[in-house]
Amino acid sequence: MRRLLSTRRSRLVLLGVVAALSAVVAVVAVVAVSLQRPAAHAVPGFLTEALGAPTTQPKLVRKSAPGVKVGITEQAMTYADTAGSKIALSSVGVKATDVRTFRNGQLANTSFGTQAITLKNPKADIEQFLTVNRKVGVHSWKWLLDTELEGRVAQSGWVGFFRKGEALLQDVAIPPVSILDAKGRDVTPKGAGWGLEVSGGKQYLTLTLDDAKLPLPYVIDPAIFRSLGTRTDSSATSGTFTVTTPATANPKDLLLLQMVGKAATATATAPTVPTDASGGNAWQLITGSNVAVTTIDQFVWWKWAVAADASASNTVTIPASTTPSVTSVVVHVYRGLDSTKTGPQNTAVTATKSAAGLRAVTVARHRFSRAVSPERGRPLRRSRPSGSTRGPARPGSRRRARAARAWGSGRWATR
After folding, report:
1. DSSP state at residue 381
2. Distance between CA atoms of residues 191 and 4, nearest Å
3. What is the pLDDT of residue 207?
4. Do strands 97-102 and 86-91 pair parallel, antiparallel, or not at all (unpaired)?
5. For residue 175, how many other CB atoms are within 10 A of its CB?
6. Around Cβ 363, how many Cβ atoms within 10 Å?
7. According to DSSP H, which parts of 72-191 are helical?
């Protein structure tokens, strides 16, 4: 009897030990899994607020501003404006799971944390937030830029866009790299900046980041929006107002500041030359700008940009003849022209159209008879000399011809 009881006690003790060991293994397994995969709710508070309340019927396409539509399509954020600029930005190498929709966007889990896209933010038309909850070391992040536009990283850190092979800077832009902490504070490492990469005919936005000194979690925050502050309307009949040069402007870009207004009376002289605090080149009036016209006033100034011109505020004087609510100013930016030239050759004629029908100033290159309209940025067709003939096209001849017409040499003019 004693031997039987002893055997039973030994079995019970053994079962208890096995159960205890199983519990320990289970706890270790849970801890290991939690370390490898962040919890779905590990989302910074400012991001939760930006997303809004959960919903099963989100409005994922919106007008963020007049003439601008933004949206979310298959984990990509999309931008389109009435000028024809279209961009879709999506993370490369990021597998999104457990996608949830909210009033102002979308949230998904990733192997390193979460990915969110928001449609409502006063600082951007559309924005992505990659929240990283664990250290990944030196890592190269990449986003596909699905667009027909050609990107350029400016010295200011902004990414501007051009139509391929053309010179006019478009309104759409990507702001400089922004890394945030859990409270939305800027913790961007010094020297962090966007890169652009072209591979297999596709264009990518890139960021190489070392998170050794970053707090956890941290948030990578690419955004797309229309450049702000490039156009200003005035309701005053006299005085001054300001217009901002696009942040995507680069040194040696050509800047044209164009002022147009409906004239109440003829203006005998041009207004005061615009001023700014860039410390670079001064604005110069292009001769032949409309003076003494009773239908409209139009004045155009030019200069070569320096680094400090990006985001510079320009003070413009309103012509005394202009009636209220019709004076409009815009800063056009052109890349690749020959900045050694001292000034434009004007071929403008006096405009008699109404202010509403007036087209923007045009920049043309004489040597290759190439022109770009600031309204649409489309090159004008090259004219051929009379009596000339065209032989059969040779392999690569069109590509060489495009290269020969590259911006950067020859004279230029306004018209």
Report:
1. P
2. 76
3. 98
4. unpaired
5. 21
6. 23
7. none
Residue 392 has pLDDT above 80, yes or no: no
**In angstroms, rounded to a whole number, what is the distance separating the alpha carbons of residues 148 and 167?**
15
Lowest mean pLDDT among 160-169, 204-213, 316-325: 316-325
Sign of the four-CA dihedral 96, 74, 51, 120: positive
Strand, helix or coil for residue 86 = strand
Supply the pTM of this predicted model.
0.75
H or E segment and range at residue 50: helix 45-51
**Which CA distances in Å does 346 have to 14, 169, 300, 301, 351?**
99, 21, 11, 12, 14
Q: Which two tokens mark 149?
A: 């536009």
Rounded alpha-carbon distances, angstroms, from residue 305 to 163, 250, 253, 282, 343: 20, 7, 5, 10, 13
What DSSP element (H or E) covers 34? helix 2-36
Residues in the chain, overall count: 415
Q: CA 131 to CA 100: how far, in whole Å?
A: 15
77 CA to centre of own chain:
13
Alpha carbon distance 373, 354 (integer Å): 19
Q: What is the DSSP letter of 256?
A: E
Q: Are 326 and 237 in contact (CB under 8 A)?
A: no
Phi, psi of 23 (to 5 degrees): -65, -40
Q: Quick check: 142 and 78 in contact, CB under 8 A?
A: no
Task: Please report, in angstroms and rounded to a whole number, the separation of the first and last CA atoms in the chain.
Answer: 115
Average pLDDT over residues 161-187: 95
Chain mean pLDDT for the chain: 76
DSSP 10: H
DSSP secondary structure string, 396-412? THHHHHHHHT-TTSS-E
For residues 203 and 201, give the distance between their C-alpha atoms in angstroms, rounded to a whole number.
7
E strands present in 183-307:
195-199, 202-210, 218-220, 223-226, 231-234, 240-244, 254-262, 275-276, 284-285, 296-304
For 97, phi then psi, to 5°, come to -130, 165
Q: Which of 367, 344, 353 is nearest to 415 (CA)?
A: 344
The answer to whether the CB of 50 falls within 8 A of the CB of 121 is yes
H or E element, residue 11: helix 2-36
> 296 pairs with which residues across the strands?
262
